[in-house]
Every structure is written in structure tokens, then in C-alpha cells.
Write a structure and sequence with these properties.
Rossmann fold, 7 strands
Length: 252
């Protein structure tokens, strides 16, 4: 039930939905004054949520600091959180999204000898698509030459809390005294770290895929609306609401 509610909530907090509703109200309202207010409000919301500078500043306050230095220790497991790929059944292709940086950074750490094994955790994460993401992540890792014995997967989880819950027994069985590196996006790390620590998995955070970069005081970035920024707000609001929801549910 929580999974279904979270997906519904993710739809309702999408800024583009707010803009669409305001425009519809403005067009359907028979009161000219109210109609004008709704249309102006829609334009303001659209401008605010397409402003790159504003998003950068807000995300910078939320993101967990990215790991910018070489690891001084070696870890038994690099735990990679899913949410980065889908499967094109027709063409038998794995398709990656932006968070794939989590997996790529794990591969780099493995090649450097900083992590001995890779643990990928992630099910489908969708209401209608039940293809287990971890299965295809393992396929990718095998195809690029990572030995099977150095790959562990967990393919039942649908959210971050379940990532931690379903990963714990696997880690306890295979490496009860192991050292674990948690690898996920900087925006996601705060919630992920809290989930794993809540259930007693000691981890070292390793943040990747940072959204906010160096501050840019240029005209385009500060004032010109950007369509991509509008959709990046979805990720931030999803993460922010998710963190609050997890606190209310006692997951963190």
C-alpha cells in the first residue's frame, strides 16, 4: 500500500501537473478575474520551476557532499542502489538513465581494488512493470568482464527502505563482519544512508551523480527558463517528500 501511495504522491507533487491544473482552471473559469489570476499563477509557477539558478541553490542545500577524494580503505562490498535502468524486450537491450553513474563509479572502484565485490539492489520500482532491475544490472556487469563470484544482487525491493531490508540478510550471510560502501546519488544519499543505518548496516557513504555544480552567475542560468530544469524538480521533490514520508513511517 505504501508503494502505491508513494507513486500517487509522486504524480501529485509534479510541478508540471500544478501548471496544467492552473491553466485548465483559468481557461474554464467563468469569472474573468479568477481566470486571469489562475493563468498568471500558472505562468509564475512555470517560470519559478524552470529557473536553473533557483534549483541549483536549493539542491545544493539538500545533497550529501560528493566524495571527491581517493578512498584510503578497501571495502568488502560496494552496495549500489538501483533506479537507473530499464529493459527493451523487443530489441533485447538494457537502457540506462542518468543515475547510471552509481553503477559506473562502482565499476571504477572495483577495477581500482577499492571494493572487492559489487552488490546491486533493486527490483522493478514501477506499478505496472515487474521486471527485476538487478537481473539486468548483473547481466551488464558480466558482459563488461566482472566475474560472477564478485557480483551479488537483490531483486525484490521496490524502494529505498526495501533496498536496505532485503540486502541485510544477504550481507549477514555472506559477509557478517564486512566493510560496506554505500554508492548512490548525492541527492538520494541522505535518505539511503538513514535507511541502512536504521536497520543496523554500518556503511560508509560514497556520493555520486551530483546535480548542483559550481555557482554560475550568468544571464542564461539565472533568468532564462529551461525545460530540463522543470523536470529535474521532479527528482528533488520526490526525494524531499520521500524523506519526510520515511520519517513519518519510522523507516529512518
Amino acid at each position: 500500500m505504501f508503494f502505491i501511495i508513494s507513486k500517487l504522491l509522486a504524480f501529485l507533487i509534479t510541478p508540471l501537473i500544478w501548471v496544467f491544473i492552473l491553466f485548465i482552471w483559468g481557461l474554464l473559469s467563468k469569472n474573468k478575474i479568477h481566470a486571469r489570476r489562475f493563468l498568471i499563477s500558472g505562468c509564475l509557477v512555470l517560470y519559478i520551476f524552470s529557473n536553473s539558478f533557483l534549483l541549483d541553490e536549493i539542491v545544493r542545500l539538500w545533497e550529501f557532499p560528493a566524495t571527491a577524494h581517493e578512498l584510503t580503505e578497501t571495502y568488502d562490498v560496494g552496495i549500489v542502489l538501483g533506479g537507473m535502468l530499464s529493459y527493451d524486450k523487443e530489441n533485447d537491450q538494457i537502457q540506462f538513465q542518468r543515475p547510471v553513474d552509481r553503477l559506473l563509479q562502482a565499476v571504477v572502484l572495483y577495477k581500482k581494488g577499492k571494493i572487492r565485490t559489487i552488490m546491486y539492489t533493486g527490483g522493478s520500482g514501477h506499478l505496472l512493470n515487474h521486471l527485476p532491475e538487478a537481473i539486468f544490472a548483473k547481466r551488464f556487469l558480466l558482459e563488461i568482464g566482472i566475474p560472477d563470484q564478485d557480483i551479488n544482487i537483490e531483486s525484490r525491493s521496490n524502494n529505498t527502505y526495501e533496498n536496505a531490508i532485503f540486502t541485510k540478510p544477504i550481507l549477514n550471510k555472506k559477509m557478517p563482519q564486512g566493510k560496506f560502501l554505500l554508492i548512490t546519488s548525492a541527492m538520494h544519499m541522505k535518505r539511503a544512508k538513514a535507511c541502512f543505518e536504521k536497520i543496523g548496516i554500518p556503511i560508509k557513504p560514497y556520493s555520486v551523480d551530483r546535480y548542483s555544480g559550481p555557482r554560475k552567475f550568468i544571464f542564461d542560468h539565472c533568468f532564462i527558463p529551461d525545460a530540463g530544469t522543470l523536470f529535474l524538480w521532479n527528482d528533488f521533490l520526490h526525494e524531499w517528500v520521500g524523506y519526510i514520508s520515511y520519517r513519518c513511517m519510522g523507516y529512518i
